[in-house]
Specification:
The chain is globular and about 50 Å long. α3 packs antiparallel against α4 (59-83) and α6 packs parallel to α7. Strands 2-1-3-4-5 form a 5-stranded parallel beta sheet, sandwiched between helices. By secondary structure, it is an alpha/beta fold. The protein has helices spanning 3-12, 16-28, 33-53, 59-83, 103-114, 128-138, 154-165, 183-189, 198-209; strands spanning 90-95, 118-121, 142-146, 173-177, 193-194. The two termini are 30 Å apart. It folds into 2 domains: 3-83, Orthogonal Bundle (Methyltransferase, Methionine Synthase (B12-binding Domains), Chain A, domain 1), CATH 1.10.1240; 90-209, Cobalamin-binding domain (Rossmann fold, 3-Layer(aba) Sandwich). Helices cover 58% and strands 10% of the residues. It binds CO-5-methoxybenzimidazolylcobamide. Residues 59, 98-105, 107-108, 144-146, 148-150, 175-180, 195, 197-198, 201 line the site of CO-5-methoxybenzimidazolylcobamide.
Length: 211
């Protein structure tokens, strides 16, 4: 078993301290940061995503694995920057205005980050202007909207409309998710796609950007 295999296993098992230690060891052994990212962290998270889709693990295990990945990534990030590794795309993600539910959005953000995307986290209760700003001024390729309440899901359409009004709708792909929404709603409000969970959100965003 190589140190990369051990790192992958640590993340899958959600052992943040093991993941941290293995990333440090892999760097000491001379592995390039992008190899550690792709063959260790990203590979582990796509494994976890698949296990979730297969019903082998559930949300808590996925969250714990994502946290382990996140901790390991904090060590790795400066090495990735130094190596000039470019993110595969930039995603601005937020829970829409009026909605304070954070957990699902965070999980989607972590899984995307674990898959090589740069994340602009706009937080919860995010007004449409924040999404417009992320596209206009921060180079977001994708706008990712989360809503958990039937009363806040209409605010997803408000974001789509605000992007149109700002003249940037064509520059960006829009994905929506959260318990009360579905593909039909995505079609209805003019979003580009819907994903039911974090792991399919990663697949959908990859598909949208062709990466
Ligand atoms: Co609230 N809440 N809550 N809540 N809460 C729900 C959503 C509710 C279904 C509970 C219920 O009544 N059975 C209900 C909504 C009913 C409805 O609208 N039809 C509800 C309500 C009513 C409320 C309040 C109005 C309660 C009140 O004050 N009277 C209030 C609203 C506050 C507000 O937002 N303005 C409220 C408050 C809260 C807490 C603050 C107490 C807390 C949130 C804490 C936090 O997030 N930091 C909370 C919680 C925890 C829940 C439940 C219990 C759990 C939500 C959660 O975190 N799930 C929830 C009931 C439930 O879902 N069983 C409930 C785990 C998470 C991993 O799943 O968020 O679904 P989820 O995310 C999934 C997918 O949906 C998807 O991927 C994620 C991972 O698989 N996904 C995306 C999510 N976003 C995505 C984006 C994507 C793609 C996929 O692409 C962009």
């Amino acid at each position: 078993m190589t140190i990369i295999d051990e790192l992958r296993e640590g993340v899958i098992q959600g052992q943040a301290n093991v993941a941290l230690e293995k990333v440090k060891k892999a760097l000491e052994e001379g592995y390039a940061a992008d190899v550690i990212l792709n063959e260790g962290l990203i590979s582990a998270m796509s494994n976890v995503g698949q296990m979730y889709e297969d019903g082998v693990v559930f949300v808590p295990e996925m969250l714990i694995a994502a946290r382990a990945m996140d901790k390991a990534l904090q060590i790795l990030r400066p090495y990735l920057v130094a190596q000039g590794v470019k993110p595969v795309g930039k995603v601005a993600i937020g829970t829409v205005k009026g909605d304070l539910h954070d957990i699902g959005k965070k999980l989607v953000a972590m899984m995307l980050e674990g898959s090589g995307f740069e994340i602009i986290d706009l937080g919860i209760d995010a007004p449409p202007e924040k999404f417009v700003d992320a596209v206009q001024n921060k180079g977001a390729d994708v706008v990712a909207l989360s809503a958990l309440l039937t009363t806040t899901m209409p605010n997803m359409k408000t974001v789509v409309d605000a992007l149109k009004q700002a003249g940037v709708r064509d520059k960006v792909r829009i994905i929506i998710g959260g318990a009360p929404v579905n593909q039909a709603y995505a079609d209805q409000i003019g979003a580009d796609g819907y994903a039911p969970d974090a792991s399919s959100a990663v697949r959908k965003v990859r598909e949208m950007l062709g990466v």
